[in-house]
């Protein structure tokens, strides 16, 4: 079993009958969704899923997981999602799979958030992984210029075919290649990004995660984050 599968299956043990479950996006969350599908089919688990991307929606429908949109549920009991980086103070970068907008909407309406990662995602400071910013196409060149002027090394994300990548909401992603974001500067950066017109959402997920499940060696490590 690989580390991503290990943490996906472990996270599924936090899911019980009757829950409304946020289903994350990416190659790690994939295994969580598979395991929930298996438990529905084999054990009669009864849950409602809320997906965070079109890709996860397609996977969940294929597994006969009952789904509702975030607007059809009063709240989400628990959301399980991957992450691109988690700092030593448990702040995160997400959006490597371009699903940050729906992921943040679902996460911020969840009573509990679990992140599942292999140990390579655990870092001292964020920023080695480029920080994804979802922007409206109109005015995106101006935002690129603004980020450039600030020395944030922005790059418009392209597809494998060299087209501008479009998110599930038809926006663009600008990745900021900053190399490092000191832990004591992360909130300041997030607040500044929040002020920019044309920025729909950014990949800094701050004070959101409650539990981190890390895949390492032969068994996962679970860390409950106290804030
Ligand atoms: O934020 C995400 C998608 O927008 C993913 O959760 C993140 O990129 C981690 O993905 P993976 O598990 O494939 O490494």
TrEMBL record:
Classification via Gene3D superfamilies: 3.30.70.260, 3.40.50.1360
Entry EC no(s): 5.3.1.6
InterPro entries: NagB/RpiA_transferase-like (IPR037171), Ribose5P_isomerase_typA_subgr (IPR020672), Ribose5P_isomerase_type_A (IPR004788)
Keyword GTP-binding annotated: no
Binding site for substrate: 25-28, 81-84, 94-97, 121
Sorted UniProt keywords: Isomerase
Protein name: Ribose-5-phosphate isomerase A
Organism of derivation: Vagococcus proximus
């Amino acid at each position: 079993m690989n580390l991503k599968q290990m943490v996906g299956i472990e996270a599924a043990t936090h899911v019980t009958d009757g829950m409304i479950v946020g289903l994350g996006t990416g190659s790690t969350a994939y295994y969580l969704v598979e395991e929930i599908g298996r438990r529905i089919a084999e054990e009669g688990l009864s849950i409602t899923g809320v997906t965070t991307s079109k890709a996860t929606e397609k996977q969940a429908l294929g597994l006969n997981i009952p789904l509702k949109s975030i607007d059809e549920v009063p709240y989400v009991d628990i959301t399980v999602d991957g992450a691109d980086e988690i700092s030593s103070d448990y702040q995160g970068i997400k959006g490597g799979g371009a699903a940050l907008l729906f992921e943040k909407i679902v996460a911020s309406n969840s009573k509990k958030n679990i992140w599942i990662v292999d140990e390579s995602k655990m870092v001292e400071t964020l920023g080695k992984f480029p920080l994804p910013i979802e922007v409206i196409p109109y005015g995106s060149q101006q935002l690129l210029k603004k980020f450039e002027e600030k020395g944030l090394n922005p790059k418009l994300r392209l597809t494998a075919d060299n087209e501008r990548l479009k998110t599930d909401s038809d926006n663009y992603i600008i990745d900021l290649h900053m190399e490092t974001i000191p832990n004591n500067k992360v909130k300041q950066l997030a607040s500044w990004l929040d002020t920019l017109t044309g920025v729909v959402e950014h990949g800094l997920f701050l004070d959101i995660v409650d539990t981190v499940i890390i895949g390492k060696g032969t068994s996962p490590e679970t860390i409950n984050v106290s804030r």
